[in-house]
Design goal:
The complex is a heterodimer of chains A (422) and B (172). Chain A is an alpha+beta fold. Chain A has a single domain, classed as Cytochrome-c3 Hydrogenase, chain B (Orthogonal Bundle). Chain A has 17 helices and nine strands. In chain A, α12 runs parallel beside α16 and α15 packs antiparallel against α16. Chain B has a domain of 108 residues: Alpha-Beta Plaits (2-Layer Sandwich), CATH 3.30.70. At the A-B interface, α3, α6, α7, β6 and α12 of A face β1, α2, α3, α4 and α6 of B. β6 of chain A pairs parallel with β1 of chain B. Bound molecules: iron/sulfur cluster (2 copies). One iron/sulfur cluster binds next to α3 of chain B. One iron/sulfur cluster binds next to α4 of chain B.
């Protein structure tokens, strides 16, 4: 990461702010001081956002040692990929980070396309950008809702969920499912966005920034939100690098690193958008960065819709009979196409080699590493799930702090266990 | 790049109480907005031709299914939900399934079977509700899967519409 630029605050101010509020200093007069208590948080604790178990060693209210324990949702996705084959694994990518199924679909498809050397037509790429930005908003809405309900703001949860519900309704009407859309295919997308769907998405996007303002009214100047997030869980850029944190967590620490800018894919280089970065890197900055990211996603999605309006009727799926199913009507009439259909469904193989492709997902860099030996089944499929790295950062941030900060830290790091355990 | 603002609290915000009232005003305003909740079984979600419900076998005008038990849907199914045993028939299509089971408990409604079928025999219906008293009852056989073409017509038209591409056969 040589191009990383540090912005905002210098190290000294950062350190000063870190210790402005220092609960790590144990209260010596506390009668319970020195008596350590081991506490299990999770795997069914509602604030651990899934089945994460955290072992906490408490001295009074201070956390002395924190150990996250992952694996309660392990379903062997990477191995499943090896046994299912290239095409069928798409449905499993939906179920990794189930808050942004379309983003996972895209990341996997991009890795396969890189391996197979497949060019996605422009319209296909634009549809993907639109869907990815909608997914990002969806995932950030969940972050906002769950984190605020954990910190006591129950109303927020319903505000964010009713907005998310609207995106689900749009996706339902356009992709056929609310969750687990399985909409992306190698070489493009399953079906074109129809005009009425474009109109509905545009109408939703037009009203959404007002809703973000409303969320901000509820939280940004809220004393409780402020006190529980401000200067809690500070991540320095160095810590982010040490623990390979990416995405909003890294940007909140003041590092401008966004794969959409640094390694553009799917034509992101043609879009105008800003990368929000924070200054201190505490829970509050991470919140502010995500809020701003939602606004930028709206911008991106609107630009994608404009491009869609310009390219209406163009190809959205690559014309490549090695990987892309032929259209139904030709299958009935052409023997050759029928053979393609059989070949692709039963035995689609990718050339020998390796590929890694990462996208800027809502939680960080989501990458798929695929290795092929030239057969229809992958030799290896590794998923770089940003959530796992985010979980790793919990002990670093939580140790030495008050137990009540744990909830803010877990919420602000934002992970989904489906992807962490995979 | 934009650096996000770190808002400092104003006096009113620090005092908290005025802010509670302001927050409540947002909440109260919500009471007069239209309801967003839905009373589910009474008010089902809208279903369109895009909705991918459970897969069903189309019964054509000749009162028979078009399936030739080629097994392509079985091969395409990522959930291993389909089991087919093929057999001969006197009809013009020569082959038909003797057994065609879809385990609805396994099916994840992905639509890969519909995409794979070269005979337009299987389509995603808009039937979504699934409940029964035993697991066996949810393994649907041919009789349970059959649906008249008219019931699936909207979906068939939709699939034909989205497949209107590359009208010329490719060279690759
Ligand atoms: S919809 Fe998917 S899971 Fe269900 S039977 Fe068809 S291919 Fe299998
Ligand atoms: S439903 Fe279609 S794909 Fe499946 S066996 Fe019958 S003809 Fe083949």
């Amino acid at each position: 990461m040589s191009t990383v630029q540090r912005t905002g605050v210098d190290d000294e101010t950062r350190t000063k702010r870190t210790f402005e509020y220092a609960p790590g200093v144990v209260d010596r007069d506390d009668p319970l001081h020195g008596e350590l208590l081991e506490l299990n948080m999770g795997p069914q604790h509602p604030a651990t956002h899934g089945v994460l178990r955290i072992q906490v060693l408490l001295d009074g209210e201070n956390m002395v040692k924190v150990e996250p324990d992952v694996g309660y949702l392990h379903r062997g996705k990477e191995k499943t990929c090896e046994s299912l084959g290239w095409r069928k694994f798409f449905v499993h990518t939906d179920r990794l980070d189930y808050l942004q199924p379309l983003m996972n679909n895209c990341a996997y498809a991009l890795a396969l396309e890189q391996l197979g050397g497949i060019q996605v037509p422009e319209r296909g790429q634009t549809i993907r950008v639109l869907l990815m930005e909608l997914s990002r908003i969806m995932a950030h809405l969940i972050y906002l809702g769950t984190t605020s309900i954990d910190l006591g703001a129950v109303t927020m949860f319903f505000f964010t969920f009713s907005e998310r519900e609207k995106i689900y309704a749009l996706l339902d009407a356009y992709t056929g499912h609310r969750m687990n859309n399985t909409y992306i295919r190698i070489g493009g997308v399953y079906a074109d966005v129809e005009e009425h769907a474009e109109r509905e998405i545009r109408a939703w996007l037009a009203q959404f920034p007002r809703k973000i303002d409303e969320f901000e009214t509820m939280l940004t100047g809220n004393r409780i939100w402020y006190d529980r997030n401000r200067n809690v869980g500070i991540l320095t850029p160095q810590m982010c690098k040490d623990w390979s944190l990416t995405g909003p967590n890294l940007r909140a620490s003041g590092v401008e690193w966004d794969l959409r800018k640094q390694q553009p894919y799917s034509g992101y280089e043609h879009y105008e958008f800003e990368v929000p970065v924070g200054t201190i890197g505490d829970c509050y900055d991470r919140y502010a960065v995500r809020i701003e990211e939602m606004r930028q996603s709206v911008r991106l999605a609107e630009q994608a819709l404009d491009r869609l309006a310009r390219t209406r009727g163009a190809e959205f799926l690559a014309d490549d009979r090695r990987y892309v199913l032929p259209p139904k009507s030709t299958v009935h009439t052409s023997m050759e196409e029928l053979i393609h259909q059989f070949k692709i469904v039963t035995d689609m193989s990718l050339p020998k080699g390796e590929a890694y492709h990462a996208v800027e997902a809502s939680k960080g860099e989501l990458g798929f590493f695929v290795a092929s030996d030239g057969t229809s089944h992958p030799l290896r499929c590794h998923i770089r799930a940003p959530g796992l790295m985010n979980v790793q950062a919990i002990p670093v941030l939580a140790e030495g702090r008050l137990f009540s900060d744990m909830v803010s830290i877990i919420g602000s790091l934002d992970f989904v266990m489906g992807e962490v355990d995979r | 790049m934009v650096i996000v603002k770190r808002k400092e609290l104003s006096l009113a915000e620090k005092l908290y109480l005025p802010e509670v009232l302001r927050g409540l005003s947002v909440t109260f305003r919500k009471m007069f907005e239209p309801k967003v909740t839905r009373q589910y079984p009474e008010e089902p979600l809208p279903k369109t031709e895009v909705t991918r419900g459970q897969p069903r076998l189309v019964v054509n005008e000749d009162d028979a299914i078009a399936c030739v038990s080629c097994g392509l849907c079985e091969a395409a199914c990522p959930a291993y939900a389909i089991t087919i045993d093929g057999g001969e028939t006197d009809r013009a299509i020569e082959r038909e399934p003797k057994r065609f089971d879809i385990d609805m408990l396994r099916c994840i409604l992905c639509g890969f079977c519909e995409e794979a079928c070269p005979k337009d025999a299987i389509y995603m219906s808009d039937e979504l509700e699934l409940a029964d008293y035993s697991r066996e009852a949810l393994i649907y056989d041919i009789e349970k899967l059959k649906r008249p073409k008219a019931a699936l017509q909207k979906r068939i038209d939709y699939v034909n519409r989205i497949n209107k591409r590359w009208q010329t056969p490719s060279s690759t």
